Predict the structure of Type VI secretion system lipoprotein TssJ.
Amino acid sequence: MTFSLKSHRKSLLAGIVIPLMLSACSGPKMIAIHGESAAGLNRDAQGKPLSVVVHIYQLRSADAFNRMTMDALLAGKTEQDLLGNTLISSKELTMIPGKSVTDSETIGEETRYVGVVGFFRQPDPGYWRLLFDADAIKSRGLIFKAADCYLQPVTAKNIAIPGQSSQPPAECTSKRR
């Protein structure tokens, strides 16, 4: 059986080009981040809406994020203390009641998960944070809503966090402080 020089070149070219194309797909990718805030965002005891700070984390693993508690965040521990070597980077956004915020972020090659945390006055016990597969975010971007006491995914389906119900609450019922 003989091979022509032309078919050998095609095989060689395919052996170089295909891996390059595949590696380009898995590399860093710039994504759009869009957050929408409810008019009644993060209401105080008198019902006045207040802004919410949201942190977006790029993570190597979901384990530390799944174990993280709001009490630990509010106790003054650093993100690095809480997330350890799973934390790749973080970004902070401020959500204003009734407004939306748009930003962009490069999702790194080593990022496997994207975590979103809302620092609400009276957070819902399950939906003060969301966790996403990074590949889903790379293909669709990150769009979420911030309501009175919880975050809600819009574009990508979030990954369930231990103790989190399948849906965010219909309304926030905790007592206002």
